[in-house]
Design a protein that fits this description.
single chain, Rossmann fold, binds NADP nicotinamide-adenine-dinucleotide phosphate
Length: 302
């Protein structure tokens, strides 16, 4: 199989490249930066492409694309987030119009105002989001599903593993004096997604003979509590810190307590209420094999 991977220099895209190369796929890796670490992309051929700037002039012939490139931030400049996540997805679609497109979306497309309880795929999108990231991810999904000839949308949540660029670094940068302020009680459940399992799901989706329905939640085998996850992530990074929980009502308006704006409505919505996914469709239709959530001792952030 010939595969193109966007966002290959990132956390998820790198794992997809390495898994695909290990399985013998012929991989072309795309990232925005001029050059990539060959080990990160599993030795795949690398090309630089800013997907927000325009379509690819000379796309390689491939059987499938795994589209991981995104501005994956909840605090980014909205214009840049929309440029990459929606306009960039349009450019990926027109560059590769005829093949399977595996679009790595996000569980952020579920309703941020209500708990996500074993959410099924049809429960998103909704009409309002808290930030440009979630809104643009939802819009990109709709674009892919309406335009791509052969689309598969995957929705992971809280992706973790070695080389994490998002979740773990974000926790670590908020540790102060051995404490990490976390919204909520820590007792609510969250579905997490191990990065290599997500990479395997991407390859299953790329190779599936018939990928119907086209939208799949992708997460570990069972949810965990926020407290268990936060303590496990901190310990896995070798950081001695304990979570201190703040009732969500204390955080309104969040900007008053946290002038830096790091603890925004979106973050509160991710930690203070349940965020769990039903993964039955991915197991039954894609052959996805979820793993239990487990944090190896000492895995580094990027
Ligand atoms: N991490 C999570 O917890 C999580 C959860 C749910 C969903 N997701 C989704 O998973 C996907 C991958 O996320 P990630 O965690 O791997 O993020 P990441 O580590 O920040 O990687 C982002 C990738 O996108 C590329 N990129 C950004 N802007 C680009 C542009 N304008 N043109 C071309 N490439 C561009 C980056 O390239 P350069 O580095 O070369 O600039 C990088 O390769 C995203 O779609 C994200 O929404 C992630």
């Amino acid at each position: 199989m010939r595969l193109a991977v966007t966002g290959a220099t990132g956390f998820v895209g790198g794992a997809v490249c390495r898994a695909a190369v290990a399985e013998g796929w012929q991989v072309t890796a795309f990232g925005r930066r001029p050059e990539a670490d060959a080990r990160h992309v599993g030795g795949a051929a690398y090309r630089s492409w800013d997907i927000g700037a325009g379509r690819l002039a000379d796309p390689p012939g491939v059987d499938a694309v795994v589209h991981c490139a995104a501005s994956a931030t909840d605090t980014g400049v909205a214009r840049e987030v929309w440029r990459t996540n929606l306009l960039g997805t349009h450019h990926v679609l027109v560059s590769f119009p005829a093949c399977r497109l595996v679009h790595v979306s996000s569980a952020s497309v579920y309703d941020p105002r209500r708990p996500t309880v074993r959410a099924k795929e049809h429960e998103a999108p909704v009409d309002r989001y808290f930030n440009a990231y979630a809104a643009a991810k939802a819009a990109a999904e709709q674009l892919v599903l309406s335009v791509a000839r052969d689309p598969v949308v995957l929705r992971p949540h809280a992706v973790y593993g070695a080389g994490d660029t998002t979740l773990l670094p974000r926790l670590l940068e908020n540790v102060r004096c051995g404490r990490l302020l976390v919204p909520g009680t820590g007792r609510v459940l969250v579905s997490m997604t191990e990065v290599d399992s997500l990479a395997r799901a991407c390859l299953l989706a790329a190779a599936a003979a018939k990928a119907w329905p086209s939208v799949y939640n992708v997460a570990d085998s069972a949810p965990v509590t926020i407290d268990w996850a936060v303590r496990g992530l901190l310990a896995s990074a070798g950081v001695r810190a304990r979570p201190v929980y703040l009732p969500a009502w204390l955080l309104t308006p969040p900007a008053r307590l946290f002038p830096g704006g790091r603890l925004n409505r979106y973050v509160i919505s991710q930690f203070a209420v349940e965020r769990t996914l039903d993964i039955t469709a991915a197991i039954d239709r894609l052959g996805y094999e979820p793993v239990p959530t487990k944090f190896p001792a000492k895995f580094p952030a990027a």
